[in-house]
Amino acid sequence: DRMGEKRRADDDSGSDKKPKSSKKEKNDLDPDDATAKAERKAAKKAKRDESGGGGGGGEDDGEDAIETVEVECKGQTGRIIGKGGSKIREIEDLTGCILSIDQAKGICTVRGPTVAPAVQEVKNIVQEGRERDELAHAPAPPRARSKSQGWDDAAHDRRSSEPAGVSTPDELPFGKPPAGSASRNDTGQNDWQCPCGSTNFARRSSCFRCRAPRADGVAGGTQMPGGNAPVGVGRPTNERTTGTNERTEAGSAARAPAQGSDADGYEVFVKYLPHTSEEHEVADVFSRFGEILGRVRLIRNPATGRCKGAGFVTFAHEHARQAALAKDGMKFGGRHLSITVAKTGTFGVRATEQAFGTHTPAMLRETIDALVKPDPNGTYVDGTFGRGGHTRGILAALGPNGRLHAFDMDPQAIKEAKKLEAEDSRFTIHHAPFGCMDTVLKPLGVTCSGVFLDLGISSPQFDDESRGFRPEQDGPLDLRFDVTQGVPASEFLERVDRDELVRILHEYGETADPVAARRIADAVCLAVAEKRLPSTTKAFAALVAAAKGKEYQAMHPAKLTFQALRIHLNQEFDEMRRGMRAAAEVMIDGGRLGVLTWKHSECAILVDFHRHFEVVQPTQPLLKWMRSNHPEKENALPTAWGLTMDDAQRPSEREMRDNSRSRSAILHVLRKVDAGRRLADVERLAYPLLGWAPPPDTPKPPPVTFKYEAAIAGRDEHRKEKKEKKEKKEKKEK
Predict the structure, then answer these.
(1) Which of these, 145, 384, 385, 560, has the minimum number of CB atoms within 10 Å of its CB?
(2) What is the pTM of this model?
(3) What is the pLDDT of residue 573?
């Protein structure tokens, strides 16, 4: 340990001083250094043995050798070894050494009885990473299929016997790899055959398919170079090597494909795909293993639409997945692929990536079951048309006499909706906010069996850089759903008061960090005063990030600021309150209001709305007290429309697997009761009897400030109808 500390101290000091015994500069990537060092140690050991031992401190007295290797904790090397992942564990199990990565210093420290094989493995992986980085930056090779991608039907090994671009064993940059090598330079010559017919890597002690132990009893390969025996064979037992066979067996069992079903399919996760890969090209290769269920899902960069180098392939049968896993490391498009069983995440599913520029409706089946299924021939409202995902699903579930009205503010959405309106006579689109639905529909004599509101922003809006909703993209700082209404964010920030901006950022975005909201507002106001406020998303996001500082969450530092400005400019929360109240006004008795929320703040607004109109239940303690002590007050309770709430629903595991953006969605269903008694009215009567302060009054919905022709015409018609009824009533009373 003292030797290792001294070596690291020398590395940190950056000294150019060379050891006296060294005649040339040491190169950590030169295998001759490791080989020479191993030979010197072997000579010293033999000399001590001949002299009958004596002296303290050598490897024979229990001290481990220590050596450091320079690694690059970035690029492909960083992905392979830099964070200390499965490759580290494989090398440790293979050699019996202990490896530790220091990312800050860019070194890997190797400790063990014989470190040469482990050092050589690390160097091989570093070289492999460098080759992959060079290949990634080189011009893309022409797209070809079959054998040009490294596919060899005659080969039964992990990869083809002579893959393009990989040296033969005699030409490997660091010599012949140890048996059972975990690196790319292993050509498969030490693989072993299981009686079941499967080919297994040399380092496996049991068959990957049938779990049968290796017949010859060798764990992890044959004799290592440098004279060291493989783990668990002829090596003195110590703390590191004891039970290695058992750990290897347990590791194989842990890596066994435990998930998957005939209904959902059997999925693999593929890494190191070329960035130019397309779904059909990956499907062409993996269909050789068996039937593919659904389509290949590549993880793509939202900004460019290019493949990020990874994706998922779902097979219809387990044997097809096993065949794909057996080809882990096969060559495709000039790269060696990593093929593993798709893992589940913290919430029971793994992430996927929404197809770029598309919109997949969240919880569509649950929405239809809750709203439309009870009355397929009723009249319904989709308050947020978006790109028509939920609208088309509802129309498909409606009967021939069913009707559907939809609302939206976005001119692009209205353009798409007009096409659907021309195709289906049961559908009508209104260019107005859903908060105006009562003033639009009442003059038309429309009452609804159900209303659906999908809150927030749609995927096409989010992905369109010209709208300015994403801080990662570069476009105008607009943030409006309807670019014909109001002012863009860049203009709003030029004239907003500092205190008002602090309130907006804190209330709608940085709810848990008022200091961040204040500092961001300060930076914006200073930029306005100096006439250097950015008008594009990327530049403004950089200003916000600089003001906010470090962010502990895995998201862009400016994300919540963009969210807060978007909510304010589009009046999203006020529109939500108006929309729920308007929906209750147009729904019939037993009507159902479905609200799809995406944020905690939206859930809080919905629950608060329900509290004001909640129908009192017979088991409510306050009603029981009133019934026992003041029965006459119970009879005096007014009757009015009220609401009950179903249990909230969340996306299924399968939906989150197919549409990762649905993971935050929650479906709330409120049901209208025409002649009910509200809990708020019980509180107003009971609190004075108990000597308590009266509860707050039910707030009125916020006023509508958006000006749309449909809403204005409906409002004027509604006012005219109301005036006529009033005059008729007065005339009758006279």
Answers:
(1) 145
(2) 0.55
(3) 94
